[in-house]
Amino acid sequence: MDSPHDLVVIGGGVGGLVTASVAGQLGLDVVLIEREPALGGDCLHSGCVPSKTLIRSAGVAHTAREAGRFGVDATVGDVDLTRVMARVHEVIAHIQHHDDPDRFRGYGVDVRFGEAHFVDSHTVTVKGEWVRGRRFVIATGSKPAIPPIPGIETIPYLTNETVFKAQTLPERLAVVGGGPIGIELAQAFSRLGSRVTVIEAGESILPKDDPVLTEALQAHLQSEGITIHTATPVTGARPGASAGTAMLELGETGETLEVDEVLIAAGRQPNISALDPETAGLDLNANGTLQVDARLRTSQRHIYACGDCVGPFPFTHMAEYQAGIIISNAIFRLPRKVDYRAVPWVTYTDPELAHVGMTGAEAERAGIEHELAVFPVADVDRAIAEGCTVGELRLRIAKGRIIGASLLAPHAGELIHELTLAEAERIPLRKLASMVHAYPTLAQITKRAAGAHYSPQLFSVKTRRLVKWINRVLP
Q: Residue 54 CB: number of other CB atoms within 10 A?
């Protein structure tokens, strides 16, 4: 039998690619296995890249329709979804060059395509060939979770894996799920011209985010014409009266909704069943993700895992971060643990909703006494000039440092990183308040919020008396 490879990486998304490329360039004997016919994973082919490209096209259409607000005459005809999706796939193809298999083979990585199945804890099969390894990294990502809606199998429906293949803009679109994927695509299709209804079983959209900001975002989306039902489960599905349509039953009232397309965006599930994890002796969590320790080792300590198949955050940037942890532990043998204290996430609506650190509810559950500093986007001069004043910054502060931040604002996904650094490095809030921020920028909202937090102390009766005394005594 052939000698085992130094490292076998299963999954060609960002977590697997980062790990395999570093290990290969360091001279290890590496095999990279990807089930799909191309590298790049869900993010490139059906997630982050296509959705943000679609959002950009939708934003252009919306800006043109709103041009009159800015003193510019413009007209927009019907949107040609075929052309929009052609641009989406052009962007995917452009970025795909970075994930060319030959690039990784140049690093010394043996790239193979096919489904991997564990035979034992040190061996997988791929297309009938056995691949043995001293160490493994599982980075197989996740796939759309399909809720158990009675009759769902009787209607065609879209997921994030198929929606970017659509060529005709639906007149009426139902989005089942009010999480980030559902809300982003709901706004995008609405701005492209669809009549969109979001159906969320929970009490609110985006339940992991600050409820004050999600309510504000929901109101804004509704002002753009999107219908949003919360606390409304879909209790049934069947073909509609007209060919190609679908009928959804909402809640317990028997209310029905007829639409031309249904997009299921009701969460994700780990993509690991085909691996036969039990055969390798791998333990699973209750939600089906692989159980790992703080060094991202599974119950078989020579097998590591990262990304969506592990959690706790289903983000591409988290898979990349976790890959770095694995590289330290599995390749350099330098013990390093994950630190999830300052992980930013963004919902790419317009305005964007970004968050890092603890929510208010999390801080209360942890028994952390904290203060809340709030500053509205409407009081930021650049936002006024841009004509985008929806939202606010909400800072949670304990002992003079940020423990959590939530921001609904234009470009919130860019602005959140200053706050992420401040939290990760425990930078005192007073330093953000005194830091020079360029004017006029949206980033000034951080300085303004920090300054507003200290204003009561600065202009207190005690401080006013001190200032008067200083000015009487000193020349």
A: 25
